[in-house]
DNA sequence: CTGCTGACTGGTA
DNA sequence: GTACCAGCCAGCA
């Protein structure tokens, strides 16, 4: 496992239940603020059992991707109290987890 | 090494 | 609000 990937994984694992973070947030916390796309790539190859990938969403407040498991992602989020309308996350700004970097909710 | 590929993002129209 | 465009970067062929 590469260093970047391990940092991304540990970052995602630190996201508390009921909270979400964007790919950009995770990338920034991993030390590569512009590697959001690469983070998505990593999420694609990591095992859902070890990493709460469903808590990582797109910056626009949309679900983002989850391969062919978008339904699963929705149900997992709903199980943690996060409501989703279509692919839009309700209360996104307040559900967004404040990672050590990038303090404000833009 | 080069050249794609995306679970992305921000800007512009 | 939507659509398109150009950077972006780790991983893989």
Describe the structure.
The chain is built from five helices and four strands; from the N terminus they run αβααβαββα. It has helices spanning 3-13, 23-29, 36-45, 70-79, 92-95; strands spanning 21-22, 56-57, 84-85, 88-89. The strands form two sheets. It has a two-stranded parallel ribbon. A two-stranded antiparallel sheet has the order 3-4. Helix 2 crosses helix 3. The radius of gyration is 12 Å and the shape is globular. The N and C termini lie far apart (32 Å). The mean pLDDT is 91. The protein binds a DNA duplex (13 and 13 nucleotides) through residues 2, 4-5, 22-24, 27, 32, 34-45, 53, 56-60, 63-67, 70, 73.
Low-pLDDT windows of residues: none
Write down the overall geometry: globular
**What is the distance, rounded to the nearest whole angstrom, between the alpha carbons of the first and last residues?**
32 Å
Number of helices: 5
Mean pLDDT: 91
Share of helix, binned: 25-40%
- How is the main sheet built? 2 strands, parallel
- The whole-angstrom Rg is 12 Å
Major beta sheet, strand line-up: 1-2
* Structural class by helix and strand composition: mainly alpha
Order of helices and strands: HEHHEHEEH
Content of β-strand: 5-15%
Task: Report the strand count.
Answer: 4
Keywords:
106 residues; mainly alpha; two-stranded parallel ribbon; two-stranded antiparallel sheet; globular; DNA-binding
Short structural summary:
The longest helix is centred in the first third of the chain and has 11 residues, at 3-13. By secondary structure, the chain is mainly alpha-helical.
């Amino acid at each position: 496992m590469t260093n970047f990937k391990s940092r991304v994984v540990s970052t995602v694992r630190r996201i508390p239940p009921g909270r979400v973070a964007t790919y950009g947030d995770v990338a920034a916390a991993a030390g590569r603020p512009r590697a959001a796309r690469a983070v998505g790539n990593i999420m694609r190859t990591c095992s859902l059992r070890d990493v709460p990938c469903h808590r990582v969403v797109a910056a626009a407040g949309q679900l983002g991707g989850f391969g062919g498991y978008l339904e699963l992602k929705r149900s997992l989020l709903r199980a943690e109290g996060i409501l989703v309308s279509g692919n839009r996350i309700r209360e996104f700004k307040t559900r967004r987890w404040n990672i050590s970097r990038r303090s404000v909710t833009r």
